[in-house]
């Protein structure tokens, strides 16, 4: 196993280095990061739930997507997605526009205000993350970066359903 202390620093696996222990530590870190991001989002110009933020970010990533695609992307039911869009529309963050070719389909678009709110949230999250990273030693930040790069590389080589529990 490669120790994150430096490139090519191969050492014997220490207690707590097994995948299950590391997964538990990462879970704690992700929970902490989620709390940090949630707090930063709550300080933004408009308070939105994490569910609403996910919906806005999904539309931002795929402008013009339809309600079914949004529901699928958020893994929620169509009626729930519709009510969510109703609330975001009432807040002036999202608009529903009839599809130019299909009268029955509606496209979802962020409003300029919705774009502004997402930029505000992103800036606050980046600021909070930068503050946390600034409290780390440079070697710790470098190790974290290398570890995250290794994780992403490993994850991208696995099949999409790897690690999911099998359905009985």
Characterization of the model:
Helix content is 60%, strand content 6%. By secondary structure, it is mainly alpha-helical. Strands 1-2 form a two-stranded antiparallel ribbon. Strand 1 and strand 2 form a beta hairpin. Helix 1 (19-42) crosses helix 5 (112-134) and helix 3 crosses helix 4 (78-90). The longest helix has 24 residues, at 19-42. It is globular and about 60 Å long. The relative contact order is 0.11. The model has no long low-confidence stretch (mean pLDDT 86).
Category by helix and strand content: mainly alpha
Share of helical residues: 55-70%
Q: Which regions contain 5 or more consecutive residues with pLDDT less than 50?
A: none
H-E string = HHHHEEHH
The strand line-up of the biggest sheet is 1-2
Largest sheet: 2 strands, antiparallel
> Roughly what fraction of the amino acids lie in strands?
5-15%
Task: Report the end-to-end length measured between terminal Cα atoms.
Answer: 34 Å
Give me the number of helical elements.
6
Question: Rg, please?
Answer: 20 Å
Based on Cα principal axes, name the global outline: globular
Strand tally, please?
A: 2
Average per-residue pLDDT, rounded, comes to 86
